[in-house]
Write a structure and sequence with these properties.
With 170 residues, the protein is mainly alpha-helical. It has 6 helices and no strands. The radius of gyration is 21 Å and the shape is elongated.
């Protein structure tokens, strides 16, 4: 059985189509999540840090427990948001490198690919595990989960991985 090869130019064009179809909506949804939830979590974290010692020092009833919960929750959301933002920026930079310069340039950024994938894993797991009940009834729940939780980003990521792994040096 013969090996099928696809020209790099055609592969890069296909990748742009994949980006538009599979990555545009999730990237916008994740960027909105980063902006809105990340900023709220960051302000919550910055607010709860000085309030925790103050509530302990002044012996306010029930306040240390609430402040500690706010500190942990906002810290976790801020951390996940930061990881997701970093992974999204790495994904965009790798996509730009591949579309502009091809697989040879993409192979130069192999470590960036794996770091970005590692950074994206925990936020994607968290959004898929924690947010299923937050979808609206106006949109079909299955479609909104697939697009808004970033699952379709796997298609362009798989394409980038295949280009790095299988494309021979030219």
């Amino acid at each position: 059985m013969g090996r099928v090869t696809i020209s790099e130019k055609w592969s890069r064009s296909l990748y742009v189509v994949e980006l538009v179809i599979f990555a545009l909506i999730p990237a916008v949804a994740l960027a909105a999540w980063i902006i809105f939830a990340g900023l709220v979590a960051l302000f919550g974290l910055l607010f709860s840090i000085p309030m925790l010692p103050a509530s302990i020092l002044f012996d306010l009833p029930q306040t240390p427990k609430g402040m500690l919960q706010l500190l942990v929750l906002s810290g976790a959301i801020a951390s996940l948001t930061g990881m997701g933002a970093t992974a999204l920026v790495k994904f965009v930079s790798l996509s730009a490198a591949f579309v502009r310069h091809g697989a040879a340039e993409l192979r130069e950024h192999r470590e960036t690919f794996w770091r970005g994938l590692a950074l994206a894993a925990l936020p994607l797991i968290a959004t898929n595990a924690l947010l299923p009940g937050l979808t609206t009834e106006m949109i079909d729940e299955r479609a909104s989960r697939i697009f808004s939780y970033g699952l379709t980003l796997g298609v362009p990521l798989l394409h980038l991985w295949a280009e790095m792994h299988y494309r021979r040096k030219t």
